[in-house]
What does this fold into?
Amino acid sequence: MFFNIEIEDNSFSYQINQSKIDAEGVLDGLYIIISTCLDKESSSATDTVKADNNLSQVEQTFRSYKTVDLKVSPIYDYTAERVKFHIYVCCLIIM
It folds into this structure.
């Protein structure tokens, strides 16, 4: 947190946590990609960026097919099985 907050029955006070702000400031202007699906030992930073770009292309394709090309209304699936099936059907349409 960037603030240290104290709340009591009749008072409220806060202090700015400058060390946290400074630590976050080091990352200002940087583009950070965190990947949990790539193997740390066998993939480089370049591989991670390529995987992120490929994901962006897939997402753009889905958006295009569901809005501009097919004009499919949103479908709200809440179970893992239905989500997987929905993606499968979308992939069939794309192919």
